[in-house]
Design brief:
By secondary structure, the chain is α+β, with helices and mostly antiparallel strands. Helices cover 30% and strands 35% of the residues. A six-stranded antiparallel beta sheet has the order 6-5-16-13-8-9. The model has no long low-confidence stretch (mean pLDDT 91).
């Protein structure tokens, strides 16, 4: 089997370690399991073009090493090809890697993928744009924009920047006025946050939510009913405590498609960590078994 591997040299986990050592560890893991390896280490701006070239090559499997942004690009490019995609988690959250039970340490991840199996998972999409984890509308896109502004202007690290951004956004909490339709007629919602996930989130605690199932063929829809900063802080506290699904101000649904209508011509969202602005109405749907991935055996 020929494996094409693309590493984002600017990914957080590679910043403080010799790149030659990382490349050797990954290459050796796959070669020990009989693979022919074609490995490329590139800057973040070159990742998409390199992924595209490797997908067009004779490699049967393409593995990307980077954060959720790198993976998001890889998924969009890999879907039409039908090739198997692997992910070495080198970012901050590494959401899909966590749900696939891939070790978060580089050597362990490379070994698990090299010895792993092919698994088929669902993909969600909105207006034809695929994503693996979540699409978030409401106040959260402003948090992400403000976080990046804080990082650039004040050189704050990601998490401190996020805390400052969250405080500033909650102070003037923006509301989303939409009509939601999952096949039972439109329902008007005025909410600070709307989340549409690829499969349903599990019960659990912590701000990083997980999914036990990646192939149940459902979108998870989460809508906050209450419209004030206190309710958002309470919900975040319950996320940490693991009781968020019992929050009286949160509505949850499991559907196969969703249309989001708005008076606005375009709506801003965060898809797998990437800010997007798409024309309304937004058409969400689940694509069962759309992506082949490498997963631990």
């Amino acid at each position: 089997m020929k494996v094409g591997i693309i590493l984002n040299r600017q990914a957080g986990s590679l910043v403080d370690r010799p790149i030659d050592g990382a490349e050797a560890a990954i290459r050796n893991a796959f070669q020990r399991h009989g693979a022919t390896v074609d490995l490329h280490t590139v800057d973040g701006a070159q990742c998409a073009d390199t992924i595209r070239r490797v997908l067009d090559s004779d490699a049967e499997t393409v593995v990307v090493g980077g954060g959720d942004g790198t993976l998001h690009s890889a998924v969009k490019l890999a879907l039409p090809t039908g090739k198997t995609l692997g992910v070495i988690p080198l970012g901050t959250l590494n959401l899909l890697a966590r749900d696939l039970r891939i070790p978060l340490e580089l050597e362990g991840a490379a070994e698990a993928l090299a010895a792993g199996r092919i698994r088929v998972i669902d993909i969600a999409e909105v207006n034809g744009e695929p994503y693996t984890n979540s699409s978030v509308l409401g106040f959260y896109p402003q948090v992400v924009q403000e976080r990046e502004r804080q990082r650039k202007q004040h050189r704050l690290l990601k998490w401190p920047g996020a805390a400052v951004a969250m405080a500033k956004t909650l102070y003037r909490l923006p509301l989303l006025d939409v009509r939601l339709d999952w096949g039972e007629g439109p329902r008007r919602m005025r909410t600070p946050i709307l989340v549409v996930s690829n499969n349903v989130y599990d019960d659990g605690f912590g701000l990083v939510l997980s999914r036990q199932s990646l192939d149940a063929g459902k979108l998870g829809v989460y809508v906050a009913r209450e419209r004030n900063a206190f309710a958002m802080l309470r919900l975040m506290g319950r996320l940490v405590a693991g009781s968020w699904k019992q929050d009286e101000g949160l509505e949850t649904y499991a559907v196969t498609s969703l249309t989001v209508h708005s008076r606005r011509h375009r709506l801003k969202m965060v898809n797998d960590g990437e800010i997007r602005k798409l024309h309304a109405p937004l058409h969400y749907r689940i694509l069962p078994g759309a992506l082949k991935v490498l997963a631990p055996g």
